[in-house]
Sequence to fold (308 residues):
Amino acid sequence: MHVDPYIVLGGAVVGFMVGMTGAGGGALMTPMLILLFGVKPSAAISSDLVAAVLMRPVGAAVHLRKGTVNRRLVGWMVLGSVPMAFVGAYLLHLMGHAKAAQQNIETALGAALLLGAAAMVLRYILDRRTGESRTGVVHEIVPHPARTVAIGLIGGVVVGMTSVGSGSLMIILLLFLYPTIGAKQLVGTDLSQAVPLTVAAALGALAFGHVEFGVTTSLVIGSVPAVLVGSLLSSSAPDRYIRPVITFVVAASGLKYVGVGATTLGWILCAALLIGASSWLAYRRPWQSSSAIADLAPTDITPQPDIE
Fold:
């Protein structure tokens, strides 16, 4: 069993993103293994799922400890997602694992994720203009059972039919269904509901897939500590920092699903980061704050006479 240090590093990067956002695990990890490390698609999917069984519970445990998980929401989503994961796998089996059919599903999912990312940006702008903030306490949120189960149904069938995680899609749906909840609380809730769903998918991968334990071990070594760090940050960071990261990961996942190549995707993401950083600097102008503080500081101190 060979441990690849580069896969360890890649697993750490994706694990950190999963801990921060609850999204992007399968959508980023599986393509990384296939495109960058030459792992066979079947082995990449199965190895990623088995590694996620150890990765996601770590993030969920951090959020449970921090009190950022609504257990009732988790229960309603699991009620829909776990059974539908098997239904999705069966539907894919009926289609004969046709590559064209799965590609069409992934393209549709990518379009939905890109639309969701754009909607998240629009929602953020509207929240800024109206002064609304997501300040609801997670345990005070009243679940909408039917609609929450529907989110689980959608996420479960997507997992079953595409063999990748659907955290990105479920995060978007949760953010819009519960508009007062903070992003970090929804990250914790989504990570927790993903644990039984991932276990169910991983059991199927172990039974019918091809797991390369060297790849799985490399992913676990890199991703588990990284998801712990990411979860610690997301469970305590302000909402205004988490939401842009979620939007970035969701958009990256969507671009990958619609068929954007790895090199092109890398340039697009670099450009997005550069534009985002430039926009933040132009809006916040941190150098002006520093100069203002300097202007307020005393520059001339007149010595006091000695008192005898």
Remarks:
- The CA atoms of residues 298 and 305 lie 19 Å apart.
- Residues 99-130 form the longest helix (32 residues).
- The chain has twelve helices and no strands.
